[in-house]
Design a protein that fits this description.
This protein is of the alpha/beta class and about 220 residues long. It is built from 9 helices and 8 strands. Bound molecules: D-xylitol-5-phosphate and zinc ion (ZN). Zinc ion (ZN) binds near residues 12, 39 and 179. D-xylitol-5-phosphate binds near residues 15, 39, 148 and 180.
Length: about 220
């Protein structure tokens, strides 16, 4: 699921113009987007309300690329089978949203998806400590989840660095993803801190040229900071 460069850009359709979803997805794919990120919000774990299995199925009809599903919902286990059937590739949930974190991570893999755990800015890395071997992806939230277009929290850089150390200490090859406020100004620092997978919504879809923005984000990763 890599593109060879070791960097994955995952546009979040939360910020897409949904009246032109197919066109916007084609634009980011033309720019070399590696994954398509879907933010599932239930109005409880986060205040906002967004998409479900029908959005995943619609995107699956538009691309063979991995569909990276980020569940900001309580009891994410309720969506395991339906999201897998709809064509989700990565199933990432928040540990506070469920009781049996390890059980759910294992169940995600049994469904043939990559298992991801997401940590809010206020959530300690220790929440991942006991389950590193069960992770295919660790998502460090770089804003408080719920809405697109927020500002990258600078404290994230140190947390990304520590997350990279945690994965390395366990010999884990899990993806280290960041999500929230990723722009051409913030991506290089997040990459330098150790992130390899970058979600971006607003920066890409409000840019006027989503394909160019995807290419620019990838290029900025390679700038030394
Ligand atoms: C935030 C979501 C993000 C969001 C990122 O709650 O998890 O995936 O779409 O949007 P930007 O890139 O606009 O901060
Ligand atoms: Zn997200």
């Amino acid at each position: 699921m890599t593109n060879g460069s070791g960097i994955r850009i995952a546009p979040s359709v939360l910020s897409a113009d949904l009246s032109r979803l197919a066109e916007q997805v084609q634009q980011v794919l033309a720019g070399g987007a590696d994954w398509v990120h879907v933010d599932v919000m239930d109005g409880r774990f986060v205040p906002n309300l967004t998409f479900g299995a029908n959005m995943i199925a619609a995107l699956r009809g538009l691309t063979d690329k991995p569909i990276d599903v980020h569940l900001m919902v309580v009891e994410p286990e309720r969506y395991l089978e339906s999201f897998a059937a709809a064509g989700a590739s990565v199933f990432t949930f928040h540990p506070e949203a469920t009781v049996h974190v390890q059980r759910l991570l294992a169940a995600v893999r049994r469904q043939g998806m990559l298992a991801g755990l997401a940590l809010n800015p206020g959530s300690p890395l220790q929440l991942a400590d006991e389950v590193v071997a069960d992770l295919d992806l660790l998502l460090i939230m770089t804003v408080n989840p719920g809405f697109g277009g927020q500002t990258y929290l600078p404290a994230s850089n140190d947390k990304i660095r520590r997350a990279r150390e945690l994965l390395a200490a366990h010999g884990s090859r899990a993806f280290l993803e960041v999500d929230g406020g990723i722009t051409s100004h913030t991506i290089a620092t997040a990459h330098a801190a150790g992130a390899d997978t970058f979600v971006a919504g607003n920066a890409i879809f409000t840019s006027g040229d989503p394909a160019r923005e995807v290419r620019d984000l990838r290029r900025r990763c390679l700038v030394t900071v």
